[in-house]
Each structure stands twice: as structure tokens, then as C-alpha cells.
Design brief:
Blueprint (H helix, E strand, L loop, with lengths): L3 E2 L2 E2 L4 H20 L4 H21 L5 E3 L4 E3 L1 H20 L1 H5 L7 H17 L4 H19 L6 H32 L4 H7 L5 H17 L9 H7 L2 H8 L1 H17 L4 H21 L7 H21 L3 H27 L1 E2 L2 E2 L9 H4 L1 H15 L5 H15 L3 H27 L11 H16 L4 H13 L3
Antiparallel strand pairs: 1-2, 3-4, 5-6
Helix pairs in contact: 1-2, 1-5, 2-3, 2-5, 3-5, 3-11, 3-12, 3-15, 3-21, 5-6, 5-12, 6-7, 7-9, 7-10, 9-12, 9-13, 10-11, 10-14, 11-15, 12-15, 13-14, 13-19, 14-15, 14-18, 14-19, 15-17, 15-18, 15-20, 15-21, 17-19, 17-20, 18-19
């Protein structure tokens, strides 16, 4: 594959082109054939995501740069893109029951997920501030619409509106920060900024603060987390699963690339910001979740906490830290998708149940479902020898090696507090009186749960290849 046009090599962007052209083709199909094509379009969308992943893996090894340095494909980009594509594809699989309801046959749903994923892929490969903003907006605009996909539900509409208003505010902050950085360095490319930003001028630091504020919103880190619980609770559950997985991968990827490649000369400046954001996110995620009664709100606070843990690795500013971030986000996606598969499986008489009290006695009515959920919750809490323990281990070790001892200690303490509310759900499932029989679980939900559950339980057996892939991806940034 060596397409060349007007001096630009198109080979690195083939997966993105496939997604873009495929999305437009599916949009035409839906527009001409109507809502009856929803199931076919969802299936084709999953196949398109798989095709994009295969094409990404087939690209030549090493670093490829195109469009004047604004689009970079390296090992880091490949790792994160594959993860984002998996997150999106699994979300579409989990959405089939939601879309099969006659009142919700919306073919646009799968196309919006595809377009959002296209934005994520552009974001992950962003090599300058302009491609970063384009990728971010393409990802976000589709997410705002997907949040309101249950149009007859007031909560869903409220979630979409809140997300849109706060998202627009964060985009403005990010753009203002980008304009300040451009003003004080004279360039938008990460490489150019790195060459200019060797000392921290006041204007540059202001720009950096605004840029990081916009990115913190996208990963739902404190103090820009306020949208997360309401949007997670209000959006349809498959959409919440999507919000909690693939967009987090893309946002964390660009967070990592922007800080490590554009601002290596002023590490101490952004390190202070990340240490504060990380501690605040871990603390809020751990303490605010304790009083929750709705499982989706609890998962929202859990997500805030986990983004704090991931940022511990990034705050160290080292190769080990970047490797820790990559390993963490991989394991986090598996844990989150598995947990949402369980939440989607919780139906009684065709009605979804979302209260934690509805999980009462699940071990007696559906032992296998209860076992897998318990293992996922233990993993989220970071209990060895499950995958979640290794995720936290790598970021804390990186922080200790970078002499961020206070950050590592506070992280461990937050982890202990967080374990309380995960264990409360396990206690509800195993020791309370059953709340009633759960409906039979659909095949695709069972498949996702089995893969995610076994990945978490058996991670120690194949941790080597995963960590070495994360290490290679991290090294490509330095």
C-alpha cells in the first residue's frame, strides 16, 4: 500500500478512510431503505470496525508521518487504535437488544458510533493541535447525539443536553489553550512546540493549563467530572458502556502523546497539574461512590477514580509511566465492558433493573453471572491475582521510580477505600435474600462477559506479551 497524492502519503490513513467511506455508504443505505435496515447496518458496522483493525495491523512497522506531520502512526497509535476499535465493536454487539426494540430501530446509532470511532482514531494519531481538535470534535459531536438515542426518555434527553453544554465549554477551553500555545511558540505541531517550549513562560503555562483542562473533561477527571454521573445514569446502558470504554482510550492517548511529546522541556509544570488532578480524581471516585444506590452512577464514580489511577502513571513522565498507562487502559476497558455486560444482563420480566438492591441474592438465581461479576468487581478493586491488581501495580511502581511517593501512597489508600463499595455489591449478591429471577441472558452479552471475565481472571498467565506490547508502544513516544 503506497498511495501518494500531492506529496501526501495516504497509506497511514487507509483504516480511517475505510471507516469514513463505509460510514457514508451505510448512511445512504439507511436513508434509502429506512429503519428496517437497523440490524443489517449494525452487523456491517461491526465488520467495518474489524476491517479497520485488520488494516491497522497490516500497516508497515515503525513510525509513519503524513499530512505535514499532523498525522502520526507509530506503535503507540496502533496499540490505542486497536483498543478503541475493540471497545466500539463490543459496544455495538451489546447494543443489539436495545436496537431490536420496534420503538428504537434507529439505524443512525451504529453510524454515529462509527463516526465517533473515526474521530478517536484521528485523535490518537494527532501530531499537532489542529488535528487534535478535529479528532476531538468529530468524536464528541457524535457522542452528544448518541447520548440522547432513547428519544422518548426524559433522562436520556437531559443527559445528552448536559453533555453537549459542558462539552462545548470544555472544547472552548481547549481551543483557547491551543491558541495561547500557538501564540507563545509560533507553531501548532507537537515537535515544533517541544523545540520552542524549553522554558516555562507565563503565557505558555496558561495555555497548557487550558489545554489540559479540556482533556481532563474528556477523560472525566476531577474537577471536570461533573457531567459523568448524570450522563452515565441518563444515557441508555449500551451507550454508557461506550462512553466508559472507547472514548476514554482516545482521550487518554492524546493526553499522553500531547504531554510527553509536545512539552518534554517543562515536565515539572504539567506534572504538578497531573498530580493534583490524579489525587483529586482517585479521592472523589473512591468516596463519592460509597453512597450510590444506582449501579450506573456507581460505575461513573468508579470511572472517575480509575482515570485518576491511570494519570498516576502519566504524572511520572517516564517510559515506565507511559507503559503503565497503556497497560492500565487495556485492563480497564476489559473490566468495564465486562461489568456493563452484567448490567445489561440484569433484566426482570423484560425490564432493565439498575438499582444495586436488585442484585440481591443473584448468586442463588444465576450463580455464573454472580461469579463473573464478583470477579470483575474484585479486579476493579485491584485485588490480586486479578488483572486490576497488575494495572495498579504498574502505575504505582512508575510513580515510585519517579520519586512521587506521596502520590503512590495516596493512590493505594484510595484503592482501599474504593474496595469497600465494590465489596458491598458482592455482599449484596451473595448474602442478601434473592430479589427475583433474572431473564435469560442474550448470546452476545454472554460472549462479551465470558471473554472479559476470563481475561481478568487469567491475566497473570499471559501478562508478559501484553506488557511487552505496551512497553514497545510506550517507547515509540520517546
Amino acid at each position: 500500500m503506497s498511495f501518494e497524492t500531492a506529496g501526501y502519503q495516504l497509506a497511514p490513513v487507509v483504516p480511517e478512510l475505510v471507516l469514513a467511506v463505509g460510514s457514508m455508504a451505510l448512511l445512504m443505505l439507511g436513508a434509502y431503505r429506512g429503519q428496517g435496515t437497523t440490524k443489517a447496518i449494525t452487523t456491517l458496522a461491526v465488520l467495518l470496525l474489524v476491517a479497520a483493525g485488520v488494516l491497522e495491523l497490516l500497516l508497515p512497522a515503525g513510525k509513519q508521518v503524513t499530512f505535514g506531520g499532523s498525522f502520526i502512526v507509530d506503535d503507540f497509535a496502533r496499540f490505542m487504535k486497536i483498543l478503541a476499535l475493540i471497545g466500539s465493536a463490543v459496544t455495538l454487539m451489546l447494543s443489539t437488544e436495545f436496537l431490536s426494540d420496534p420503538s428504537r430501530r434507529i439505524f443512525e446509532y451504529s453510524i454515529l458510533v462509527l463516526l465517533s470511532t473515526l474521530g478517536m482514531m484521528v485523535l490518537i494519531s494527532a501530531g499537532d493541535l489542529i488535528s487534535l481538535y478535529l479528532g476531538l470534535e468529530l468524536m464528541s459531536l457524535a457522542l452528544y447525539v448518541v447520548a440522547t438515542s432513547n428519544r422518548d426518555n426524559a433522562k436520556s434527553n437531559e443527559a445528552g443536553l448536559k453533555y453537549f453544554v459542558l462539552g462545548a465549554l470544555s472544547s472552548g477551553m481547549l481551543l483557547y489553550g491551543a491558541s495561547l500555545i500557538y501564540g507563545f511558540t509560533g507553531t501548532v505541531s507537537f515537535a515544533g512546540i517541544a523545540a520552542s517550549a524549553t522554558t516555562a513562560s507565563v503565557g505558555l503555562v496558561f495555555g497548557l493549563v487550558f489545554l489540559l483542562a479540556g482533556l481532563c473533561f474528556k477523560v472525566s477527571a476531577v474537577p471536570f467530572h461533573m457531567w459523568t454521573p448524570d450522563v452515565y445514569e441518563g444515557a441508555p446502558t449500551p451507550v454508557t458502556a461506550f462512553f466508559a470504554s472507547a472514548p476514554k482510550v482516545a482521550a487518554l492517548a492524546v493526553f499522553t502523546r500531547a504531554t510527553l511529546t509536545a512539552f518534554p522541556g517543562i515536565v515539572t509544570q504539567w506534572q504538578q497539574i497531573l498530580v493534583f488532578v490524579s489525587i483529586a480524581s482517585m479521592a472523589l471516585g473512591s468516596f463519592a461512590a460509597i453512597g450510590q444506590t444506582n449501579i450506573k452512577r456507581l460505575m461513573a464514580y468508579s470511572s472517575i477514580g480509575h482515570m485518576g489511577f491511570a494519570l498516576v502513571g502519566l504524572a511520572s513522565g517516564t517510559v515506565e509511566g507511559a507503559q503503565g498507562v497503556l497497560t492500565y487502559i487495556l485492563i480497564y476497558v476489559a473490566m468495564t465492558l465486562g461489568s456493563f455486560a452484567v448490567i445489561l444482563a440484569m433484566k426482570r420480566n423484560g425490564q432493565a433493573v439498575e438499582q444495586i438492591s436488585d442484585f440481591a441474592g443473584l448468586s442463588r438465581t444465576n450463580p455464573l453471572l454472580a461469579f463473573f461479576f464478583a470477579m470483575l468487581l474484585f479486579s476493579l478493586a485491584g485485588i490480586p491475582p486479578l488483572a486490576g491488581f497488575f494495572a495498579k501495580w504498574y502505575v504505582f511502581v512508575a510513580a515510585i521510580k519517579a520519586n512521587l511517593f506521596t502520590l503512590a501512597v495516596l493512590g493505594v489508600l484510595s484503592s482501599v477505600v474504593g474496595a469497600y463499595y465494590y465489596l458491598t455489591i458482592v455482599k449484596t449478591m451473595y448474602f442478601d435474600e434473592p430479589a427475583g429471577q433474572v431473564d435469560p441472558v442474550r448470546v452476545e452479552v454472554r460472549a462479551v462477559l465470558a471473554v472479559a471475565g476470563l481475561f481478568n481472571i487469567l491475566f497473570a498467565l499471559f501478562a508478559g506479551p501484553v506488557v511487552s506490547a505496551a512497553s514497545a508502544a510506550a517507547k515509540s513516544l520517546f
